[in-house]
């Protein structure tokens, strides 16, 4: 764990590689992937690969995904649920954090199920070989086409609202497995854009309508309601909301029994936060899982309800810390007595989180990991937008154009929210393991950028 402020340490990169990193480290509490180390040339190495060599080979910006960190996070969730919960359990990867073929395949191979929120994510997960019975389809405004794809692929549909329920009742010719998403009315402290559990949320049925919803479902034999779902928000550090949630949800379970619904699954959502800076102090995956499992068990005992199959649905805490983004440093601008900007070859198109949520990141210089921190700079992106600043006022060693800046904790909601703003091609992603690097997403080309453009005859 990291407790020192960057300004207080002399050694620039190693500050994020504290001694307490061990096989039992919880990935979401680490800034750099679990395999990160400084090699004999003073360069950052991840998954046994020298980051500067990776950039030389694959170009930059480059997403570097450490397979071991991702698999460790999957196993910690899976094993914690197994040890803290007496009933059956299933961990589901919320693939909106980063949905691509390789990641779906890895989490599936670890026994996780996959949650998708669009026809595109569903298609990708199916192409990756995820079994339909391990696919859960979310969304507050699924199209008829998406619902049909979901029915055909035989995944479970998490129904969010009345229109969807009625549309599905019309479309389903055979029993379709569904779960119902309800808004639990539980507040948590996170950015307002990523809070979902409070009653004023666009997601899920209003729990005041629960009787009407259960009654409707009980009269439609083709809507096979196997479970209930709630998700309260994202990047949450407190344990209290997840301690309180099961009490509310188990009441719903009890009520479902009154309508003779075959409800056996309870999905308590995701939301566990990760460390982006040394100031972030999230609970570990094991601590969070323990709280959830014990709260569900206690609520079931108190309300005399049999233990459901317990599901959770993390995204960020599975993939976030497993990936870093490597950039090449370019121009420098010194505004006397105000600020020094160094610019990198990416920015808000590959990491829209600072401009969207004011998210704060750290960085290290991969080819100067042991150099002292000598200056405070602001890291700017290359986009034509003043707000395209990745990191304000960070202590770094003195850098030169061509140095490699690495921003940690960029696995969740970075590639998945990336854009082609300014027609900047999206970066490549490589998966690293035991000294080997495989491209899992190739870098976009200029041809890719005009792939969907059409030039009407009369304009030629
Ligand atoms: N389940 C549901 C229904 C969700 O809506 C989400 C996230 C998750 C699970 C996974 O939550 P996590 O474990 O990743 O916190 N783009 C924002 C985050 C949006 C989260 C959307 N829903 C960001 O970059 O912070």
Described by strand count, sense and barrel closure, the largest sheet is:
9 strands, mixed
Q: Using the alpha-carbon principal axes, give the shape.
A: globular
Q: What low-confidence regions span 5 or more consecutive residues with pLDDT below 50?
A: 1-10
Share of helix among residues?
25-40%
Number of strands: 20
Structural class: alpha/beta
Unique bound compounds: ligand LLP
**Tally the helices: what do you get?**
12
N-to-C terminal Cα separation, in Å?
A: 60 Å
- DSSP strand (E) fraction? 15-25%
Mean pLDDT: 94
Radius of gyration: 23 Å
Write a brief caption for the model:
This protein is of the alpha/beta class and 460 residues long. It has helices at residues 51-58, 67-84, 101-109, 119-127, 144-153, 162-171, 210-218, 240-258, 285-303, 316-319, 353-357, 446-449, and strands at 37-38, 44-46, 49-50, 62-66, 89-94, 113-116, 135-137, 156-159, 176-181, 223-229, 265-267, 309-312, 323-335, 339-344, 364-365, 375-380, 389-396, 404-407, 428-433, 436-441. Mean pLDDT is 94; it is low at 1-10.
Word description of this protein:
- Specifically catalyzes the decarboxylation of meso-diaminopimelate (meso-DAP) to L-lysine.
- Its EC number is 4.1.1.20.
- Keywords: Amino-acid biosynthesis, Decarboxylase, Lyase, Lysine biosynthesis, Pyridoxal phosphate.
- By secondary structure, this protein is an alpha/beta fold.
- Helices cover 27% and strands 22% of the residues.
- It is built from 12 helices and 20 strands.
- It has helices at residues 51-58, 67-84, 101-109, 119-127, 144-153, 162-171, 210-218, 240-258, 285-303, 316-319, 353-357, 446-449, and strands spanning 37-38, 44-46, 49-50, 62-66, 89-94, 113-116, 135-137, 156-159, 176-181, 223-229, 265-267, 309-312, 323-335, 339-344, 364-365, 375-380, 389-396, 404-407, 428-433, 436-441.
- The strands form 3 sheets. Strands 4, 13, 14, 15, 16, 17, 18, 19 and 20 form a 9-stranded mixed sheet that branches.
- β1 (37-38) and β2 form a beta hairpin.
- It starts with 36 loop residues before the first strand and ends in an 11-residue tail after the last helix.
- The model is unreliable at 1-10 (pLDDT under 50).
- Bound molecules: ligand LLP.
- The site of ligand LLP has 23 residues, from α10 and α11.
């Amino acid at each position: 764990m990291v407790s020192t402020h960057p300004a207080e340490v002399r050694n620039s990169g190693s500050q994020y590689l504290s001694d307490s990193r061990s096989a039992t480290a919880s990935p979401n509490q680490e800034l750099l992937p679990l395999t990160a180390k400084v090699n004999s040339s003073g360069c950052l190495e991840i998954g046994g690969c020298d980051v500067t060599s990776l950039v030389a080979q694959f170009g930059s910006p480059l997403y570097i995904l450490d397979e071991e960190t991702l698999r460790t996070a999957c196993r910690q969730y899976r094993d914690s649920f197994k040890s803290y919960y007496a009933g059956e359990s299933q961990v589901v990867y919320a693939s909106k954090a980063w949905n691509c073929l390789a990641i779906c395949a890895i989490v599936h191979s670890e026994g996780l199920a996959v949650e998708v929120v669009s026809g595109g994510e569903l298609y990708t997960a199916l192409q990756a070989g995820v079994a339909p019975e391990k696919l859960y389809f979310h969304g507050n405004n699924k199209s008829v086409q998406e619902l049909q794809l979901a029915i055909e692929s035989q995944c479970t549909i998490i129904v969010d609202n009345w229109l969807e329920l009625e549309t599905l009742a019309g479309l389903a010719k055979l029993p379709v497995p569904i779960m119902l998403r309800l808004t639990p009315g539980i507040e948590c402290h996170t950015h307002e854009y990523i809070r979902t559990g409070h009653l004023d949320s666009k997601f899920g049925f209003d729990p005041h309508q629960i009787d009407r919803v259960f009654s409707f479902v009980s009269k439609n034999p083709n809507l096979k309601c196997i479970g209930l779902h709630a998700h309260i928000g994202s990047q949450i550090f407190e344990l209290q909301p997840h301690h309180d949630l099961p009490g509310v949800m188990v009441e719903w379970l009890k009520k479902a029994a009154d309508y003779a619904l075959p409800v056996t699954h309870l999905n308590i959502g995701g939301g566990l936060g990760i460390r982006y800076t040394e100031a972030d102090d999230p609970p570990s995956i094991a601590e969070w899982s323990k709280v959830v499992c014990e709260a569900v068990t206690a609520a079931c005992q108190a309300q005399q309800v049999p233990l459901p199959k317990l599901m959770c649905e993390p995204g960020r805490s599975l993939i976030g810390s497993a990936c870093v983004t490597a950039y090449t440093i370019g121009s420098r601008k010194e505004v006397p007595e105000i600020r020094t900007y160094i610019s990198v070859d990416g920015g808000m198109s590959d990491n829209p989180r600072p401009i969207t949520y004011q998210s704060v990141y750290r960085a290290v210089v991969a080819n100067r990991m042991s150099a002292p921190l000598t200056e405070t700079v602001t890291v700017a992106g290359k986009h034509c937008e003043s707000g395209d600043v990745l990191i304000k006022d960070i202590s770094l060693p003195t850098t030169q154009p061509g140095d490699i800046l690495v921003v940690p904790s960029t696995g969740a909601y970075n590639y998945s929210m990336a854009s082609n703003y300014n027609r900047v091609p999206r970066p490549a992603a490589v998966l690293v393991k035991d000294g080997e690097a495989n491209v899992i997403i190739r870098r976009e080309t200029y041809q890719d950028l005009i792939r969907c453009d059409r030039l009407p005859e009369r304009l030629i």
